[in-house]
Design brief:
Length: 185
């Protein structure tokens, strides 16, 4: 439907607003999903912003309140505290169309390690922490959708010779990634 898609400016505004809030609160984060793929693989059209955050469960309610004050609204009451995923809509966009911002609360050792390994890059005129290419591959192996398999191939092509394959193999087993899936990398 014409006119109902967010502009790249709207996505950029939502990303900036989310990162401003996370930085102000000193919450460790990394950008994941389609935006990260455009850094390590290929540009793919995305309609949302995906961010993993390292946040203690008891701090989730405070973050939700801060998000509301910053023009974010949870998509549904079920997406509130207590779940691993908080889906929000950023409302303050140029076109007036909400932008989905998915915040993934990470608690496990691997996810926290991935956030520590995130790489600072310049993207969209700003500096941000983005998931490493190895961790993006592992995330995509875990999701294992057809789109993820294609994304992995583009990351492998674009990052040829620069990936830490030992790191990939080291985390595959604890994450439950089968040897069959590892053949991809």
């Amino acid at each position: 439907m014409r006119g109902t898609r967010q502009s790249s400016q709207d996505l950029d505004d939502a990303l900036k607003a989310a990162l401003r809030l996370l930085r102000r609160r000193r919450i460790p984060y990394m950008v994941i999903g389609g935006l990260a793929l455009s850094v390590w693989g290929r540009v793919r059209v995305t309609q949302d912003v995906d961010i993993a955050v390292a946040l203690e469960e008891e701090a989730e309610a405070d973050l939700v309140r801060a998000l509301r004050r910053a023009h974010f609204l949870p998509a549904a009451p079920r997406a509130m505290v207590g779940h691993k995923l908080l889906v929000c809509r950023y409302l303050k966009t140029a076109k007036g169309l909400p932008v989905e911002v998915d915040l993934f609360f990470v608690h496990g050792a691997y996810q926290r390690q991935a956030i520590r390994r995130a790489v600072t890059v310049r993207f969209g005129g700003q500096s941000l922490r983005i998931i490493s290419p190895e961790d993006l591959i592992l995330y995509k192996l875990l999701a294992d959708r057809p789109m993820d398999r294609l994304d992995i191939q583009t990351i492998l092509e674009e990052q040829r010779g620069r990936l830490d394959r030992r790191y990939l193999r080291r985390w595959a087993k604890p994450l439950g990634i089968t040897t069959k899936k590892l053949v991809l990398i």
